[in-house]
Amino acid sequence: MTRPSLFFACLGYACEAARSAAKTIGADLVEASWKQFPDGEAYVRVAGAPEGVGVAVFTGFPEPSTRIVEGMLLIEALRGLGAASVVAAPLYLAYSRQDRRFLRGEPISIRAVLRALASAGAEALATIDIHKQYSLEWFPGPAANIDPSPVFAEALRPVVEEAELAYVIAPDKGALPRAKSLGEKLGLPFDHLEKHRDRVTGEITMKPKKLDAKGATIIIVDDIVSTGGTLAKAAKLLLDQGATRVYAAITHCLLVGNAVEKLEESGLEKLYCTNTVKPRWSKAEELDVGPLLARSVEGLIERLHGYEAEQQ
Ligand code: R5P
């Protein structure tokens, strides 16, 4: 079966990656207009759309709740215009960190968000580096989590070539698969930070579980930098332990509050981010995930049509 034609429809900042995705595979791009009503309600309009599968590209920051609702409205608008099917493409999927009931009475927020996107009319979903891969099982259709490590590897290769010794480090065990993926692409050892408590003073420090930071160029990898607390602490600790230079490769650079000040003070050399959200720091380099999105959507559409064929 040949792939049906597809087009990308985007909102606001997400149009940067959507434009690049469309260009990668020669698809059309439709930029939706949007505004907020005086009472705070969101409004979205797609003036017209070509035939085929519509890919609704939006993001989840700033104002995550509004961005999610706008994404739902974009999906609903594409359905109304007669799109053959709709793929939701939230570049940064907000609410993904609440993926469990940490306390009794809490919601599994990401499950509610994924169900809402599906009920708005999305039959498939592609997102970039969701906090936990297993969350996508709550989307009732084909879903893809795009690994951004190829774009980080390309940007960081010159840094690695200059270094005598280099490692990739995750700030916690949960982010170890990210360190593994980037480490393997760069041909570098990878590890994660582990907490140690001094039995005498009770002081807590963090250091790499297996590797020695001394004399090494270190690349910290994670999905999100929000308040900057985790990254600033990790960078500072590694420099205190003798690392020569510390870089970071973080997919979604939210940088809220005084995150930039914390990172400036931490001694971090440079921050590599993707264009899923707009990074607001002069030391942050924004890398384009559009081509990865395009290829992933193509694969999803094939799966979606296979999936549909099986249902008949
Ligand atoms: C946590 O599990 C995430 O992967 C990030 O490490 C965390 O969200 C970063 O948050 P912050 O920048 O506020 O420390």
CATH architecture heading of the largest domain: 3-Layer(aba) Sandwich
Structural class: alpha/beta
Strand order of the largest sheet: 11-10-9-12-13-14-15
Largest sheet: 7 strands, mixed
Whole-number count of domains? 2
Q: What is the percent of helical residues?
A: 25-40%
Radius of gyration: 21 Å
Q: How far do the termini sit from each other?
A: 15 Å
Number of strands: 15
DSSP strand (E) fraction? Answer: 25-35%
| Bound molecule types | ribose-5-phosphate
Q: What's the number of helices?
A: 8
Approximate shape: globular
> Could you say what the CATH topology of the largest domain is called?
Rossmann fold
CATH class of the largest domain: Alpha Beta
Q: Report the average pLDDT across residues.
A: 95
Encode the helix/strand succession as letters.
EHEEEEHEHEEHEHEEEHEHEEH
Spans of 5+ residues with little confidence (pLDDT < 50)?
308-312
Could you characterize what this model shows?
This protein folds into 2 domains: about 5-145 and about 290-310, 3-Layer(aba) Sandwich (Rossmann fold), CATH 3.40.50.2020; about 150-285, Rossmann fold, CATH 3.40.50. The chain has 8 helices and 15 strands. The protein has helices spanning about 15-25, 65-80, 110-120, 150-160, 175-185, 230-240, 260-265, 290-310; strands at about 5-10, 30, 35, 40-45, 55-60, 85-90, 125-130, 145, 165-170, 190-195, 205-210, 215-225, 245-255, 270-275, 285. The chain has a 7-stranded mixed β-sheet with strand order 11-10-9-12-13-14-15, sandwiched between helices. Helix 7 links the parallel strand 13 (about 245-255) and strand 14. The model is unreliable at about 310 (pLDDT under 50). Ribose-5-phosphate (R5P) binds next to strand 12 and helix 6. Ribose-5-phosphate binds near residues 222, 224, 226 and 230.
